């Protein structure tokens, strides 16, 4: 056995795990990690006899306590039984075929005690049962699959329950007799034995709350009595193997508890750490402390239960006492550390959900608490309630994130992890939950007497992980060193309403204020409309800070600055009836200051802040706005066009349209307005002013949720045509909407048609393709009823991958790969137009942090994907713009989400701005025009002033570590998806542990 260790302190030394991980940022915690496991790592799947075999009374098998329990109506969900289950008793070859197809190195299953000894005793050996297991074991060996065999997985022979079950000391001898027979019969081929599966679940749920057979409800004392006997029975079996079989058979043997990680609610509070530690000692240490430590229960358990017993005036503690001989006998009775785990919980709360990062912490806790023994994860998986779940996306995300946390524990933390087994090979009988939650990598049709097995997508996914021996970095995600083309434009963006408002007071007239109201002024002054009732009345006060803004831009080293003009600041009522010279003068001063600093202005005519006066007559729904917009643009071309050489007509028309009452009417007018302004510039101003003018379209990238499912692939195409194609198709293709969009909208009688002459006028009204892009979604088909919302018309639902990193915005997952794909898509769909990325960035929430490593990671990975699009895919990318220069009013969410390279302290009336580390990092990318290869030696572009060099080194160091990793997201709770036999079993166990420790 493993060397035994001294008793744990209270709280145990393993509290270093909470201290080590509590300071992790969400970015560090959720960052996806790529790598592989050691060559000898063992991948497997697990099952258990009662859950899959069926044949409950076939060929002389005796009844188990679970057979009898399930035959009583009302005990099990739907009155399901394990009588047939997956019929594995008759399907050895089919089970082995599934295992071969997965490519597993091991298969963990259990032996049914009453199938081998129908009465529980060796005076009644059932040769048919023995033959069944011999066939299975021989079949596994023939296919190079190592059997991991559990001697006891809950299905006690009823005959032994009748003499007292696990409350009787007699069971120690009887279990040993059964184990001895199994070692003797199968041990020549079985080299990995588990004595008892989840003894902590047996004790609590069988004898505490009585949820499982034998239904004893004595929470205060019976679980402790039973656990005492289970530990002695385990030790006896271990010694029998050690004394009689180890020398000739050379196997390993251990016990397998259930563990759920516990996270202190406040990691800085020693009392919460103590509570989390106590929780783990009561849940796990109860069985592992005697075996791996000193032969006795954890000190905290002895003290707590003893103390409580004393208060209840009991003659002795409810926790039984081991004699000195027993302690010596139990200590060290395990060769490896096996455990099952499904989720984590926050101590002081009672929630239960898949929390992948809990697995890494569990593994670290075992390492610290038990001296880094060889560890095997024997069960890990997720159940879904569904009649069929062949396309089991959630299960793939579960394995993707949990296995990654196991990889981090092995690679980064040095945990001695030897193997991982998924639960379960196939859907099966989930104890008191019957067949409702499905945990299988293979689906079983329980309505079909033949019990056909069908691999789910997760089976294919898991097989790939096994084949790769982990999660190697995909080739296309490898970092690319190189430079962007010469004359590449580097820019940063803001928008008028978000940064440069002048204080607004409704009682002052337009004439006096020289500033008209915009629709956002009105909206933000409606209570509860904007996060924490924020408004853009002052925003960053850029209206008064031209010099400060330009200094920031100079330190970033950008060649361009993208900003928008407030229509109502220039034309207070939206028409040319009155031009506000003060407003125009502000923009003239800004442009002059930019040009003096050698920064080219990129000017957006419309960034959502429509004059309220125009909204009052219908806004974008009223087609007279096309003419109003043209007149507004003409004023700007006349007054600013000599100095501005880069114009954007409309920013993100999609958002203007789809949030309105009549999205297709609005979209129609936006496209016509854009086209008219483009023609105005083209025909009247281009020859003299020589600038570029186009539109900026925003779009997420869409991947099919299941890349092998045609419906999901179609959904992704439809998503792109409804999102990006809505405005791009008419302008960049043929003057008209895409066929897929027209067809679906016509079906709902909402179509807007362009006339032939309009199509001719719209087609080709671009000088470049302006793109705002932030994130990626996974799409699948969803047939909505006829609704009004554009999102519904496309018949597409979206989800995100749980392994993707999050951000300060719920909608924004960090998905760099999508950036390259959308750029390539635009190239192929629209005949390789010149592309300018006009917005790209990431948000955060919370207090100011100088070292915004997650933002540097975002820019590093996204800009690198843009570089791949240029170098590897031949995309005609001309420029890149970071969003945003400084924290600002993020529309309806107010100031909560911060995208800025510069931090703005909005609680200080002076609104000071401070650069974050990402500002220095972005300026370095600009200075290098990309990413010089470190292999060629230090590049001159990295040599900066001392302070900068220091930050640059820090950044490069941080990113060199981060560079090996990919992306992760932990956002979705699965609600009812934690293992529920295991829902009840493990959840009840957790609750009971809380009760015991309180």
UniProtKB/TrEMBL annotation:
Its EC number is 3.2.1.21. GO terms for molecular function: hydrolase activity, hydrolyzing O-glycosyl compounds. The active site is at 379 (nucleophile), 839 (nucleophile). One of its GO terms (biological process) is carbohydrate metabolic process. Keywords: Glycoprotein, Glycosidase, Hydrolase, Membrane, Transmembrane, Transmembrane helix. Belongs to the glycosyl hydrolase 1 family. Homodimer. This is beta-glucosidase. The gene is LCT.
